[in-house]
């Protein structure tokens, strides 16, 4: 499978989807993307820049949501033009799928919306690769039906070989807590879709801080290494120059100045034969 110009095969470099949770400004988006591009020149990884133009599932109505679709897509288009990196963004409605599909290289559907048939079908119908996040409340085997929806919609729209990715981002465990069942990575891989591991949202503590979510970013490397050892095609890591000052998901974001070290470890592990990891 080819996604945003990158081959996703067992022999291919590790795919890395990385960037700030939300677009905070054009300057910051470009700075993070340039840093990721530089890292990609030194390491055997394939980087897709990600950021959201709107965070529609905020804990509080007063939380920062982003610049909106028009300004957000303009910034993402500029990031791609100036850095050469492919870009990914998430969408929340079928109408956004059509608009974003004209600009970005990969569309993403949020975990909370994994069962929203109209959204999944609209994203797949654009013909762009779609990264579908498994909902925190869904069993991994249930994603086979989500994949079937997406593939059927893509074929009906005239796209014979749709590129569908599945992302694990942790499962609800009681209140304000997520856990990762590594078995889910292998179960979702049985769909034939490349599996991505979201190392930063998996350490999120939803709603734990009252008006916003908490998290424990110290656990990101451990879970990322475990997922790469298990054979995922790629990792999803939200990163920020100053996570403690981030406008969204700061507690679980990985510091930008520590990204190269982490990705170096993951790339080294990914390069080993699967049986020896």
UniProtKB/TrEMBL annotation:
Pathway membership: Bacterial outer membrane biogenesis; lipopolysaccharide biosynthesis; Carbohydrate biosynthesis; 3-deoxy-D-manno-octulosonate biosynthesis; 3-deoxy-D-manno-octulosonate from D-ribulose 5-phosphate: step 2/3
The keyword Repeat belongs to this UniProt entry's keyword annotation: no
The protein's enzyme class: transferase
Primary subcellular site in the record, as a coarse category: cytoplasm
Cellular localization per UniProt: Cytoplasm
GO cellular component entries: cytoplasm
Domain DAHP synthetase I/KDSA, chain residue ranges per copy: 12-261
Molecular function GO terms recorded: 3-deoxy-8-phosphooctulonate synthase activity
NCBIfam families: KDO8P_synth, PRK05198.1
PANTHER family cross-referenced by the UniProt entry: PHOSPHO-2-DEHYDRO-3-DEOXYHEPTONATE ALDOLASE
Family: Belongs to the KdsA family.
Entry protein name: 2-dehydro-3-deoxyphosphooctonate aldolase
Gene: kdsA
């Amino acid at each position: 499978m080819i996604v945003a110009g990158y081959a996703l095969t067992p022999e291919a470099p590790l795919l890395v989807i990385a960037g700030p949770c939300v677009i905070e400004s054009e300057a910051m988006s470009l700075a993070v993307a340039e840093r990721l591009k530089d890292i990609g020149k030194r390491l055997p990884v394939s980087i897709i820049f990600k950021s959201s133009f709107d965070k529609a599932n905020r804990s509080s109505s007063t939380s920062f949501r982003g610049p909106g679709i028009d300004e957000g897509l303009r910034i993402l288009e500029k990031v791609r033009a100036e850095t050469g990196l492919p870009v990914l963004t998430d969408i929340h409605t079928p109408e956004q799928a059509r608009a974003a599909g004209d600009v970005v290289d990969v569309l993403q559907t949020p975990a909370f919306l994994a069962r929203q048939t109209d959204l999944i079908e609209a994203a797949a119908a654009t013909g762009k690769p779609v990264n579908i996040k498994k909902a925190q409340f869904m069993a991994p085997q249930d994603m086979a039906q989500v994949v079937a929806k997406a593939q059927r919609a893509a074929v009906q729209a005239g796209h014979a070989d749709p590129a569908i990715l599945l992302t694990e981002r942790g499962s609800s465990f009681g209140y304000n807590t997520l856990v990762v069942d590594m078995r889910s990575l292998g179960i979702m891989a049985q769909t034939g879709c490349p599996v991505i591991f979201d190392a930063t949202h998996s350490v999120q503590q939803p709603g734990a801080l009252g008006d916003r979510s908490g998290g424990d970013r110290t656990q990101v490397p451990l879970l990322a290494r475990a997922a790469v050892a298990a054979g995922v095609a790629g990792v999803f890591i939200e990163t920020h120059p100053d996570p403690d000052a981030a406008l969204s998901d700061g507690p679980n974001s990985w510091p930008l100045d520590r990204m190269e070290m982490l990705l170096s470890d993951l790339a080294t592990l990914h390069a080993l034969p699967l049986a020896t990891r």
